[in-house]
Write a structure and sequence with these properties.
The chain has 699 residues and is α+β, with helices and mostly antiparallel strands. It has 5 domains: 54 residues, no CATH class; 119 residues, Mannose-Binding Protein A, Chain A (Roll); 93 residues, no CATH class; 197 residues, Neurotransmitter-gated ion-channel ligand-binding domain (Acetylcholine Binding Protein, Chain: A), CATH 2.70.170.10; 114 residues, Methane Monooxygenase Hydroxylase, Chain G, domain 1 (Up-down Bundle). Helices cover 21% and strands 27% of the residues. The strands form 8 sheets. An 8-stranded antiparallel beta barrel has the order 7-8-9-10-11-12-13-14. α6 runs antiparallel to α7, α6 packs parallel to α8 and α8 packs antiparallel against α10. The protein starts with 12 loop residues before the first helix and ends with a helix.
């Protein structure tokens, strides 16, 4: 007994660790060893506290005579150590003479030598360690060794050094050295007390092993069969399968139960006797790898067992995939964080649609689940499709889509788990080191790529000087808002494509949340600023040039009526064609768009110019109808009385009526006055139209 202290409160884990490491020596506040004790018939020794934490260093050896190379490489690693490799001649002599020192009754037992971990099976002449394939720079070879060429690929410690021998036919002694006490763990027994899990190994005779537990158990070989025994009740709990590899219990082995283990009765069960330290994983052959290398899509165990049974979770029989998780506080809801990464956008104005290619991620917590062996890299925590289909997953409705599309859970979807919190405990029912993580602290994330066409509601009154927006309207259908809602703080949207689209420039996206309806809703708004260069170059500038051409025809010489009228008519026809093309490229709307007003204005102006040309032409001179040509009249311009040209007259008017009309026009104004009036009228209308367009245009 060292001392007795009693506290009236539980000690923290950190305090207990400090006491166990002999770094502190606190006294109890309820009962203290330093106060109130009377010792009788006791010899008292004062020993420094640090002496209790000193570990006695004692080298031990486990011996296995006349074994094959494959057994030698297995047994030492399965016991948590390696085969010896001498680096000096003194070490060679030490190992060769060790048998007589340890086993004086049989000094010649290992006179042939001992196996070493050296081999050159991978490349002839290049000697490496069998367990990590590291190159051995200067082996202590005997004279004229190695000499076995391709037939001798293993090495043996002889009397004068190391010699190469055949790996397949030769048998040598195997010795495993321990510089400190090594602890083994029997995994998969569902034992709650650690003392019934941990064992130490010892050897009373060569080739015999005894695993002594810290509690009630022992693993030993009786009558040729390994048994797991309760030494208190003298009851056999299980027997090792007779066909176990190498005939040893170390590693992942099949045991035949004699008593119930983990509520399993009278059947075979997989148990693992592991020599591995903490934060390691035990391969089936009892070799050890770092625990993080387990199920990382790379083979690390020699027997490839580290990539087997990699299920991240097992769904309980009472799990209901149609019911959302319930949080501890009944007033709270399951929060679903939505992450949208938009890759490309294609807006079709004529159809008022927006085709979006994006990745949709949904993240949530499910406290009904428990996860196994999660990795820090979440890309390694991928759940299989079979298990994914059996879990509750938020269901999203894409509201403003053609055909009312929804989120899907299929082979294109990927479900993985994020490790945010450390493991809570180890699975004592698993035949291996399995760390368990709580679903309440480590979320699930499902992701899938979508190509969805969303419908938009564009207001094209100011086209092409307009700014639009289109929404991605999402609604959670898995449950009503009393149970499942969108997480406002964790929901994000990111655009990684080009901001310049075919017709628009995409501006900064915004998010809008709505819990005013029966289900939680969420909108991603994509603002669109129209790129006006196309409309200016293909609509406004050509139509404006045509309008100017028609206007300039008012400045032509008055007597060339045919040139003036043909120029204006050509401009009118081209603008009518342009109007038809623009109308076909835009959605059919019940309201006028500003581009429609502009083109109609250009057409009307061209028509007015034609009317002015007609008035000017009538006012130019006298009209006579030649007798030989009924239906035609002779025009004699006032400015050039020597020239005239026949012009078809309407059938409803006689030549006399035209002459009377021309006389009336000439009595009121001169031809030059009519031309000036036409020019000023057209110019005034253009200025008025420009003012209207400027007032209606967006800032």
């Amino acid at each position: 007994m060292h001392q007795v202290n009693i506290w009236d409160h539980p000690l923290s884990a950190n305090t207990i660790s400090e006491i166990a490491a002999c770094r502190i020596d606190p006294k109890g506040n309820y009962v203290s060893w330093d106060e109130g004790w009377s010792l009788s018939n006791v010899t008292e020794y004062n020993i420094p506290q640090k002496n209790f934490c000193e570990v006695e260093e004692k080298t031990t050896y486990l011996w296995f005579p006349h074994k094959t190379w494959s057994f030698a490489t297995y047994i030492c690693q399965a016991l948590g150590t390696q085969l010896p490799l001498p680096t000096t001649m003194d070490e060679v002599r030490f190992w060769y003479n060790l048998t007589a020192k340890i086993w004086p009754d049989n000094p010649s037992l290992c006179h042939d030598g001992f196996w070493t971990p050296m081999e050159d099976n991978r490349r002839e002449g290049v000697w490496t360690m069998h367990y990590d394939h590291s190159i051995i720079p200067s082996p202590m070879w005997q004279k004229d060794e190695p000499n076995g060429i391709i037939y001798e690929n293993c090495a043996n410690i002889g009397v004068d050094g190391v010699e190469d021998i055949d790996c397949l036919t030769e048998r040598r002694c195997t010795v495993c050295r321990f510089t400190e006490r090594h602890t083994f763990a029997l995994l998969g027994t569902c034992e709650a007390e650690l003392r019934n899990i941990y064992f130490t190994v010892s050897q009373q005779r060569m080739d015999q092993l005894l695993f002594q537990g810290y509690g009630d158990y022992q693993i030993r070989k009786d009558n040729g069969q390994w048994r797991w025994i309760n030494i208190v009740t003298n009851q056999t709990l299980a027997k090792l399968d007779l066909h176990a590899p190498n005939g040893k219990p170390m590693g992942r082995r099949t045991w035949h139960l004699e008593t119930p283990v983990c509520d399993q009765v009278s059947a075979t069960r997989i148990l693992t006797l592991s020599p591995c330290p903490a934060n390691s994983y035990t391969c089936s052959d009892a070799t050890c790898i770092p625990h993080d290398n387990r199920c990382d899509y790379k083979i690390d165990c020699r027997d490839r067992s580290d990539e087997l049974n990699c299920e991240l979770l097992r769904v309980q029989n009472d799990y209901n995939k149609n019911v959302p998780p319930r949080v501890s506080n009944k007033n709270e809801t399951v929060q679903v964080a939505i992450e949208i990464t938009i890759e490309s956008v294609n807006v079709v104005t004529t159809l008022m649609t927006m085709l979006v290619s994006y990745k949709l991620k949904m993240t949530w917590f499910d406290n009904r689940l428990t996860f196994r062996d999660l990795k820090e890299n979440e890309n390694l925590n991928i759940v299989s499709d079979e298990i994914m289909m059996s879990l509750w997953i938020p269901h999203i409705d894409f509201v403003n889509t053609e055909g009312n599309q929804n989120s899907e859970v299929d082979e294109e979807a990927s479900l993985h788990i994020q490790r945010l919190q450390p493991h809570t405990h180890m699975d004592n029912s698993a035949p291996g080191e399995v760390k368990m993580y709580a679903g309440a602290g480590n979320p699930l994330t499902i992701s899938r790529n979508y190509h969805t066409t969303f419908t938009c509601n564009f207001d094209l009154v100011l086209y092409p000087f307009d700014d639009q927006y289109c929404d991605m309207h999402l609604r959670i259908l898995s449950a009503s808002k009393e149970y499942v809602t969108v997480d406002h703080t964790a929901t994000t949207v990111t655009y990684i494509g080009s901001e310049l689209l075919l017709e628009y420039q995409l501006l900064q996206q915004t998010m809008h949340f709505d819990n005013n309806h029966s289900h939680s809703e969420f909108r991603v708004r994509l603002p669109l600023r129209r790129r006006r260069g196309y409309a200016l170059c293909d609509i406004y500038i050509p139509s404006f040039v045509l309008l100017i051409i028609g206007y300039l025809s008012l400045f032509f010489r008055p007597h060339i009526f045919e040139v003036r009228i043909m120029t204006t008519l050509t401009s009118l026809l081209v603008m009518a064609t342009l109007f038809s093309q623009v109308s076909a490229s835009l959605p059919k709307t019940s309201y006028f768009k500003i581009v429609d007003v502009w083109l109609l204005f250009c057409i009307v102006m061209s028509f007015l110019i034609i009317i002015f040309h007609t008035i000017i032409d009538i006012s130019l001179g006298n009209y006579t109808v030649p007798e030989s040509t009924p239906g035609l009249m002779k025009v004699v311009p006032l400015l050039t009385p020597t020239s005239w040209s026949p012009t078809p007259a309407p059938k409803s008017l006689s030549g006399k009526m035209y002459r009377n009309l021309a006389c009336k026009f000439r009595r009121r104004f001169s031809t030059r006055t009519y031309i000036a009036i036409a020019q000023y009228c057209i110019s005034a209308v253009l200025k008025i139209m420009n003012s209207i367009v400027h007032d209606q245009s967006p800032e």
